[in-house]
Amino acid sequence: MKSLIIIGAGGFGREVAWLVNEINASNQECFKFLGFVDDCATGTTIEGYPILGNCDWLKNLSEKPYLVCAIGNPATRFALANDFKKHGFPFAKLISPSVQMSKYISIGEGSIICSNCVLTTNIKIGRHVILNLSCTVGHDAILNDFVSSMPGVMIAGNANIGKGVYLGIGSNIINDVKIGEWTIIGGGSTVVRDIPDHVVAIGTPAKPIKEHYPEI
Question: 145, 153, 115: which is closest to 129 by C-alpha?
């Protein structure tokens, strides 16, 4: 049984705690969930899970439990994951037992695949990627490191989603398009042509409306 701490005790972090319970109940892989680490919260969550301390407290632990970073913002997740990697912490990979996927899929460390996602074949998912509830990913798609895909996102075949991209809730990515690094696609948007790096794009069809350079 792997000891596990979730970084981030917000809404998504608490959903990830539920995901851990579902994984344990399915006997896929057993985790001993110790609690949360959060710089902005103390005490316990509404579900009664302990908030063990802040990030500095975690770095000072002599033993190194497995971690997952349950924070939707890709830039924040990037900074935290790289920092804890330097301190020697391993990262878990969490996949809901309800996920449907073929065996021809690679998924990097620290990634979180939530309930009712469907992943078909020859898909490459990088490190610390989040696929929130009920996302679909088509054949030969690539989701690079630190992509955040919110609930209900549909990614068609051969799409290439760049590092640190944020796909808003219910957005649609048609086949063969490429989305550049650290770009935000607004909720409900439909991407029908390539989108460059470092922009916010919204609408149907999605069009860039401003630049976006997160602090990373």
Answer: 145
